[in-house]
Amino acid sequence: MQEHQQAIERGPLSVIAVAAILGLAAMLGGCANPSASSRVYTFDQAQRAQTVTLGYVIGVRPVTIQAAQTSGLGVIAGGALGAVAGNAVGGGSGRRITTVGGAVGGAMAGNAVENASARRQGLEITIRLDSGDTRVITQEADVPISTGQRVQVVTQGGISRVVGI
Q1: Which parts of 59-118 fold into alpha helices (H)?
Q2: Structural domain that includes position 46
Q3: Which tens digits make up the pLDDT trace of 103-130?
Q4: Based on the structure, what is the number of domains in the chain?
């Protein structure tokens, strides 16, 4: 009987520890977001020869860049934190209901936060190259690009960036 009471007393502490670990994992997972910026290079892209093509911007359109998929850590961490919060409310069968409700609500909120963090404002840039060819490149809107601007298209391994001159 006494062992059973100790197990029950440790329950909320264990849930809090698991929630804290999942929250930390979610934060660290968020640091791994890929970048579509013309200013950001990975270590694999640095110190490698790239092809440069010159041209003029003939069109710029604002777009939203969304990650192809999320890690799911937002759902897990949100659900765990919601369950902990729900468990702190009520007693008896009411506590079970608020725990489940908190887990569901937290999971939904965690998913929404993760999806929002995976979105970036971008530009779809249409370029008329000096060769006469036309290219469309989409990248983050962290560098101002405008119609009529002289630019270079920097390409390496199928990845192209538009950089103003």
Answers
A1: 73-87, 93-117
A2: 37-67+120-165
A3: 888 887 877 777 666 678 899 999 999 9
A4: 2
Q: Which position has the higher pLDDT, 8 or 137? A: 137
Whether 18 and 99 share a structural domain? yes
CB atoms near residue 67 (< 10 Å): 15
CB atoms inside a 10 Å sphere around CB 140: 17
SS3 content of the chain, % helix, strand, coil (to 5): 40, 30, 30
pTM, two decimals, is: 0.55
Instruction: For residue 142, give both structure tokens.
Output: 């962290």
Instruction: Dig out the tokens for 81 from the structure.
Output: 């934190």
Nearest to 140 by CA among 32, 41, 34, 65: 65
Contacts of 81 (CB under 8 A, 6+ apart): 19, 22, 23, 106, 110
- Is 23 found in the same domain as 2? yes
**Are residues 22 and 80 both part of a single domain?**
yes
In this structure, the number of other CB atoms found within 10 A of the CB of residue 36 comes to 19
Same domain for 73 and 104?
yes
Residues 55, 112 within the same domain: no
- Token code pair at residue 51: 């092809």
